[in-house]
Amino acid sequence: MKKFMRVLIVVFVLGVAGAVSLGMVDFAGEEVRAVEEFPEEAIQDIEVEATSMDVEVQSSDSDQIAVTFEGTTRGNDEPYYRVDREGETLKIEQIPRNQFSFFPFFAGDDANLRIAIPERMFDHFALETTSGDMTISKVQAGEAHINSTSGSIELKESTIEDRLSLETTSGDVYGSSNTIQNASYQTTSGSISDQSPQGETFDYRTTSGDLEVKRSQVARNTNIQTNSGDVSFLHSSSPESLAVEFSSNSGEAVVDAEGMVYETKTEHSFLGKTGENDVRQLNVRTQSGDFHLEKE
């Protein structure tokens, strides 16, 4: 019986070694680059769905929508993505690969998808990935929905006239110089960094990641919620009127705000105000994270 088990173990080890070897050969693959262009006239909605690819979306001065695929592949003839048009909606979708591997990190393509869209306002923009990272630059849309399972998300110099919903499970979120009327950022284990945002209402939620917001003034309504992450809010000029409410189980607050008068204040919570009219609201809730409101 022991001899039989030893034979099984040897066979398994050889099989695994073969799988790793094949996976490495497969991983080497070959370089591929493909570009397609589509007329953008009458397109109002853009939807992108990817699994393992990194996705980059940016505006261009062209009147075409250009889709560029590039990366290292296994060299077969299967298509990597498909583009469909349904009325005013253009859908770009990664096609899953038919493959098997004992070690998933040796299987699949090392590829990315770049999408260039005309520099104009679209009604709706949606982007979803499973494990790929996203970079969105200078996109204009009435509404935008951006979702990732484990990838990081970077959104910069974009304009969302109505509402943005951005969510990732384990990736980080980076925002820079965006103009958004109503924004919602959410991550489970990643951090959030939002630099120089403009807009009226901002909701930030993290579970274990830290959060940093840096802007000239506090927005009209800002709501922040974390469990164990720290919150840092930096502003370059103090508004004439501001209401700040902080509540935590064990976190502490450090506040630098001119003329702040505290209506209530305890070790782990406070309600403070400056001015009286046209009050801007900043609400912060943490479980164990600290809160810093500071002037640059």
Automatic annotation (TrEMBL):
Pfam families: DUF4097. Residues 43-293 form the DUF4097 domain. It comes from the Bacteria. This is DUF4097 and DUF4098 domain-containing protein YvlB. It comes from Salimicrobium halophilum. The lineage of its organism: Bacteria, Bacillati, Bacillota, Bacilli, Bacillales.
